[in-house]
Fold this protein.
Amino acid sequence: MLARGRSVRSSIVGVVRRHAPLWRRAARSRAVWVACVAVCVAAWPAAPAAALVGQASPATLDDAPVFAALPSPPTLADGAAVVGDGVDVRGLIARMTLAQKVGQLLMIGFGGTRVDGAVARLLDEAQAGGVALFSRNIVSPAQTAALVRGLRAHDPRVGGVRVPTFVAVDQEGGNVVRLKSMATVLPTAMALGATDDEELARRVGQALGRDLVAWGFNMNLAPVLDVNSNPRNPVIGTRSFGSDPERVAALGAGYIRGLADEGVLAVAKHFPGHGDTDVDSHYGLPVLAHDRARLDAVELLPFERAFAAGLPAMMTAHIALPQIAEAADVPATVSRRVLTDIVRRDLGWDGLIVTDGLEMNGVVAQYGTGEAAVQAVVAGADMVMVLWSPQAKKSVRRALFAAARSGRIPRERLDEAVRRVLTAKARAGLFSRAIVDPTATPRALAENDRSAVVEVAQRAVTVVRDRAGVVPLRPGARVVAASPLGGFLDVLGREVGATTVPLAWAPTAERTRADAARVAALAAHADVVVVGIHNGDHAAVVRAAQAAVRRSGGKASVVAVSFGSPWLVQAFDDVDGYVCAFGWRDDSARAAARVLTGALPPRGRLPVSLVDAGSPPNSTTGTASTTSTASTASTASTASTASTAGTAGTAGTAGTTSTAGVTSATGTTSTAGVTGTTLSTTSATVRAVGGGSAGGRGAP
């Protein structure tokens, strides 16, 4: 403490000495000179002095001081370390306790929809740098605004300076949406990929950013910059912009700029790339067995472009890279060769590195949460994400604190991580930004900027195959249409008089057989049979229609419309027509139907490679797809429990609207259908090819 006192006095003396000649000339007398010195000392900011009180590192983590007040943020300007918001990051770090530094490394989650006593204690004890909210935390607009305000009331304080908290949400769009009815819900990234329009990507980022800021969020755990080149990928799929690295890079950059335009920090994921994997890291350890040359050309390219464009933060992937990391089973999240050698040294990026959830089996099965956190920070991560278990959060805090106190996490590494956290906050203007006012009425959903969202849905529809020339449907054609999406059937029934067959979203084996039989009976007397599909269960209906046409000797054409993975075409025999909408929400469903009726032109460009899908000349297939990866060191257990999902545009469909997806800890399912490759007509847990989800208990 005495040393700090001497440091402050030395700083004052230094200022006085530097400006002495000017003051002497102005004062012209000893009395005025003394008065000038007195004014200088009196005006010195109170924050550094206040920081001298009780700032010795506590003996234990639980001795850390508790800060809950919310004063107006002062301006600190103390030299070359000053960044955005006029914040002296270096000086702020110097005044932090060890517990406060460790706290800034934490991105935590919690259960509940308000800041009750338990949540308040968690916030005060952890002094976390960030909080991530999920569906389990979000009920209504007013409740969410009040929740964010309550969280921010517990922003850590360092010597009178309020250190703003990252308030993050995982709002990708498509299958991964936490704000379901109170923010712009984007189509899937792959739908945006089909538009191949970087400026449109920026517009949708802006639309989403405006909504997030209105509710008090300042960080979005998106976009996905994974190049999805593997059709068997069970977790990325339509969350990716596609299989062409250049297209992924361009659209990702546009989306990131759009969020930044509205004051939202993007966290691009999952570095170094989760696209060419066939295991979900929520459940096992995927292996990316490529050498550095391949990584540079494909997986790393979108991230490198984003780094160059000013990306503020990125998220790591729990994937093994046997040709890159220290050992064959070391995940990128805890690999110094990946996070420090590649990111910092080779790519020269100095932004914020955030881990994916440390409760995911891709890392926790091998290390445990506490040890994984320590190894991640030592390797080069700046924030660690622990979202679900109270015990896991406590384990991570204690492990990081002990490692920092013992020197296992060197002081230089700890301060470097804290510097990046604070710098990201300062550059985003969070120190001076007003906190959301729960008494204000944020703009209604009707006022949301939906024009960009609708444009993406309409421009994304891609006619991949039309061998019989049936798209658009000819006037007077006898059309049978089957789909789990009510909006799709509504348009076809109303505009072309189609006989419609509502399909269940995730049918039982018995329901699948009944649906297939009904469509088959109608197909024998139709000119065109259109089957809208989202997963492998619906592929059985396509096959039934094809078989019925063959048996009857009819000439009906069968057209499949995918509202999920474009690779679903591999699940059934050759069809006459194949159309991709890349999303199941109502805008996408209606846009696909309007393309079939001729009300909209098909403008989409296929963002992935379908090796033998029979793409017409006017479709762009992107880069060649890699269809195999090295075997994983861990087996993923796929959940098959159906859980309710409130899907837009399913009104009017028969049967259940549940998904056979992995139920997350939020109580909702973030995927419409389990993904994978096994197809069967006798199981309700049929998995579709490469659908993509962020389900499971863990993280984005």
